[in-house]
Amino acid sequence: MADYLVDLRNREKISRKYQVKSSPRHFLKEEVGYQAKDPILNRYRIVDKLRDGNTYIVRLETKSGLYTMTYTIKE
Length: 75
Prior knowledge:
Elements lengths: L1 H8 L25 E4 L3 E11 L2 E8 L2 E8 L3
Antiparallel strand pairs: 1-2, 2-3, 3-4
């Protein structure tokens, strides 16, 4: 295994790149209580959604804690 790590460091072996795409905008389409799996956040649940003028606030609960996503919508 040490030889493999040395080869990676010296770029003699090419590792696969992270090619999963994830957009946080899809949280706006889902309802409160919706549960799913995201490539970055893993399992999440939408706890709260709030709209205040042109701003959306979406709160997500994951295993690692609560996340608050703030979006500004252009009109």
